[in-house]
Amino acid sequence: MKNILLFILVLFSITNIHSQSNVNPDISLIGSFSVFTNNVKETPEYGKLNFEIPSMEMYIDGYLNPYSRATANIAYEEGEFGVEELYAQILRGLPLNMQIKAGKYLVGFGKLNAIHPHAWQFIERSLFQQIFFGEEGLNDIGVNFSFILPTESFYSNLDLGIYKGDAIAKTEVLDPEDANSYLDLRGNSPIFIGRLSSFFDLDDYTNLEVGLSGSYGVHTKMNFNTFGDSSAEPENNSLKYFYGGLDFKLKYKPDSYTSLTVQGEGLINNRQVFRQGDIGLNIPIEKIEKINTLGGFIFIDYLFDKQFSVGAKYDFTYGIVDGEPSFNSLSNDDKNKTQGISGWFGYYPIEETLAFRLGVQNISFKYDDGTSQDSETKVTLQMLFSLGPHKAHPF
Amino acid sequence: MKKIFLSALILLFGTLALAEVKVVTTTTIIYDLVKEIGKEKIKVDYICRGDQDPHFLEILPSNMLKLRNADLVFKIGLGLEMWLQQIIDGSRNDKLKLIDLSKDIEKKEIPTGKIDASQGDIHPFGNPHYWLDPENAKIMAKSIYDALSDESPENAKYFKKNLDDYITKLDSKIVEWKTKMSGLKGKPIITFHKSWVYFSDRFGIKIAGQVEPKPGIPPTPSHNAELISNIKKSNIKIILMENYYSDNAPNQLSQSTGVKVIKVANAVYGQSGINSYIQMMDVIVNSLSNNL
Question: In chain A, what are the domains?
């Protein structure tokens, strides 16, 4: 009863948005500037120094009241402003020590997705995330419920969330000048995402986190006839998917000048796909099949003298890395593969207010039908700066 | 039935009477002082190890677990533990009371004028390394006593006796430390970080500079060159530094000038043999006085 009363009070305090306040939120800004070159002869960037439009992320963050806080992340990327994240969290006071996060944010499927790219040790997003979540990662609108599990000797957390599902398959705009010209693949079908993670202090200097993630929902709705009679009235079919994820992070940090991190993630994609076939005599058939694909990465990063880091990463994924995830790339492209090998060197002259990163990534492609495509190598030099208050890094 | 009910009541109240105050401290210094005042009436744990730099700590979920069921969390304050609020938020403990031990301390080096990052990692509310003055340890102990007594009034007398015993012990050690440090009075030393101002003021040492060009900023060759000149000119004999900092730059200064580098822990359990605040001060005072 007491918990329910407190819950109502917390909700009331959050909805009381007109209350007066003389406290300003924290405002900070991350700036990023990159220059790159590649060895892809067909592209205009080949062999040249290509200066990218600087990007920035501005964070506005603060407590709404003793129980909750809110965060906005306004991003400027490729010459356009956008709301990268906008969410509120109820941190305490809820039954079962639950935390609620609602709004638009980077979803915790796996470990890396919820971490902003500027805080990664490397420059390029992992290949499997590009395939299954898109170039911006799994950033979605929804609500997450978080619980600390009653494991006394180690920390365990369970996140359960429901989301709009845009990162799974976006509405595709067919004509930007015509508001009615779009292809809505999913309709109004929320997806579910959860993660169970456990954290262990192996000794004073070594920590391990392991996580299991899952996501389930409809990736496509379409009308077709599964009985093979193309003249019949098509049925409305919902094609479902399940992503299973496994992640780990092992970090050895003997002092504040040195650390060694080994981290990896994997994803299994199980989804229903639409197939057109022929049962002979030129009689077409439309059917649903199930496919299983996967992707993952593993990297090692060594920080030394507090100011330098060096690392390497191996990536593998089903699918050909090229833009946003789509019905075609995820459902029909199941036998093609991309793999990547990256290396990087980081220099942090003074804490993390300024960082320089030099990264090299080689990507190679393997097509099931024998199509050939040369491997691509990209070299990027990046400068990052952090202005304003910045929080301590979570593990 | 009546007997069972009565037994249950006795068991319940018996358990309540034995209930410990659950305390978490940000540093091992506070941990030791809390142990001295609370002894067996409290259960205490700490977040930052003695060999870690308390300015920068990674947010570990295991620390959230420590705070999850705690009644009190003590901090040094003055912006030292910028990481603490994230751990408190992660613990989801809405009954946790946060006690800032800097509230009764006479603060030093409170910056005036516009503060920005060009001045390095400065603390806007004053220098937070006040525990290195043993007179301030007495003030911290008194604040700890106040908080524990508020939390567990039935044990207030017990806490008071422990406080008085500890202050008596500290007073006698302060006399001993002052005697040992008298040979260093007025003499200049260099420190790595700007963390020894309370210590030097208490024992009358003059701090002639820092290895860091500005607080939190790594040593630079040009600043080292300035220090070499200063060390030679002022006949400085000692560089005093915390053992969690790299001694590369101090050792270079030592090779160039012959200045002695004294590397000590400034927290409990920061090095072998330091298991209490008093042992830590013993090691610091002895390291300095033996290198006169």
Answer: 38-48+108-387 (2.40.160)
Q: Give the nearest partner residue to A392 out of B64, B86, B93, using CB atoms.
A: B86
Query: What pLDDT, in 10s, does the model give residues A279-329?
Result: 677 777 777 888 899 999 999 999 999 999 999 999 999 988 875 555 555
CA angle B156, B162, B165 (to 5 degrees): 140
Task: Give the residue ranges of chain B where pLDDT is below 70.
Answer: 1-19, 292
Token digits of residue B154: 């039935």
Q: Determine the Cα–Cα distance for residues B208 and B184; give it in Å rounded to an integer.
A: 13
Domains in chain B and their CATH numbers?
A: 20-109+120-176 (3.40.50.1980), 183-289 (3.40.50.1980)
Contact yes or no for B65 and A307 at CB 8 A:
no
Chain B residues 103-132 with CB within 8 Å of chain A = 117, 121
Question: Any idea how long chain A is?
Answer: 395
User: Does residue A10 or residue B115 have the better pLDDT?
Assistant: B115
Q: How much is the pTM?
A: 0.89
CA pair distance A47, B166, nearest whole angstrom: 72
If you compute the radius of gyration of chain B from its CA atoms, what whole number of angstroms results?
Answer: 22
The pLDDT, as a whole number, for residue A184 is: 65
Place of tokens 């990159």: A34
Residue A343's pLDDT is what?
Answer: 98
CA B201 to centroid of chain Cα atoms? 16
Q: Which carries the bigger pLDDT value, residue A15 or residue A258?
A: A258
Our CA angle for B26, B27, B28, nearest 5°, is: 135
The partner residue sitting opposite B68, judged by closest CB among A148, A200, A207, is A148
Core vs surface per residue B185-199: b (16+ CB within 10 A) or e: eebbbbbbbbbbbbb
Q: Using CB atoms, which residue from A99, A201, A391 is nearest to B62?
A: A201
The CA-atom distances, in angstroms, between A232 and each of A227, A281, A304 are 9, 18, 68
Place of tokens 């971490």: A115
SS3 A70: strand
Q: Quick check: A192 and A217 in contact, CB under 8 A?
A: yes
Alpha-carbon distance A278 to A191, whole Å?
Answer: 33
One-letter amino acid at A163 equals Y
Give the C-alpha separation, A261 to A273, whole Å: 38
Confidence of residue A180 (pLDDT cuts 50, 70, 90): low
